[in-house]
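Practice record 12: protein with pyridoxal-5'-phosphate.
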Amino acid sequence: MKKTKEENNRRYFLKKCGLSTASLLLPVAGIKAMPLLELQNKMANNAKIPVNFIYDGLAFSPQEYLEKLNEINKKKPIEPDFYGNGGVTKLIEEEFATMTGKEKAIYLPTGTMANQLAIKLLNENNTKVIVPENSHIFRDEADAAQSVHNKRLIPVGKGKRYFDLDDLKSAIDYTNNNEVFKSGLGTVVIENPVRRADGTFVPIDVIKDISKYCKENSYKMHLDGSRIHIASAFNNISLSEYASYFDTVYISLYKYLNAAGGAILCGDAKIIEQISHQIKILGGTVFQSWNNTSMALHYLEGINERWDEVVIKSEKIITALNKLNGVSITSLKNGTNIYDLTLSNEISLKKLAIFLYNEHNIWLGRANDKGIVKFTVNESLLTRDYKEIIDAWKKGIKHAMN
Ligand SMILES: Cc1ncc(COP(=O)(O)O)c(C=O)c1O
């Protein structure tokens, strides 16, 4: 019998995800490891927006992205930028400068570039930059600071989720007392929330202590706030308060603002005004970026209110799911939107995930080697009725009993 287009799309998706061979669940190990293209090729005719317990954001398919842009454009025609100047790109820069309380903000094609240029410029002629050992800057930016910008990264806080003032002071004392050539320390970086610590946040008092000390000692401070919106949502600390402790702040446009890519860097005019030249030097000046900035600006509006709702709704959902036999969802210390999900032995995670995906377009990640699923909540929760989500899980658990 001839298969419908829907069936074919579905089979392709399942095959790519390994679900058709019943061997794998949707992966969870972090965005970079996701077969996102495959995920985005999901059922074209499925009317329901997926509720995903995997990603930072809504994980639009290309079709959904285009439809959303169309909707935004219909409301108010999108004004394009020209090599990053003007149009909607200027609007989002102004909005972020206001929200962070900084003099200026600038759009960059990637967060990696934003981080690297911030530390390069803040550091001036100093060579040393202190970074968290588990940070994106230290572990995931391909040694750009050393190989492109002639800055030496000094990792602090190995084995910890974040470093505190004592860790920072001992790292500084150590280099001062044990190195013959005393090139300067110029900048201290904090990442918040911490991606490699399951999105846990750095307590505000730790940030305050470090910031005060850095000011007293004339060290600059940069915040990798790629996901700062969720630290705000789960801590009730505004973006402007967080930003006030730092000289520069980077925020991703694709983690929680659903753009296809892009980053914003905010800071003093003295630094930000040097950035566009630096982007050009690195070959990163893009003809037009409105496709990212219009999407991000759309989702920036009302982000705090929506995340307040996500926090309340996810608490309600987690409480209800924890009442189901064999389901345990626990929060992490200083956690934001990632929880640990474990199932009792009688429940097959594989069956549950496939059922939720097939029957309800609810996406669940796979377990790590300890049997824990990193259960992530995001704005996709707001697209579905609470009762519908809980009912789907109830049916799923029943179906998945061994
Ligand atoms: C904490 C953190 N900082 C920076 C980045 C870099 O962002 P981009 O992919 O835009 O270079 C990422 C991306 O995963 C991140 O998680």
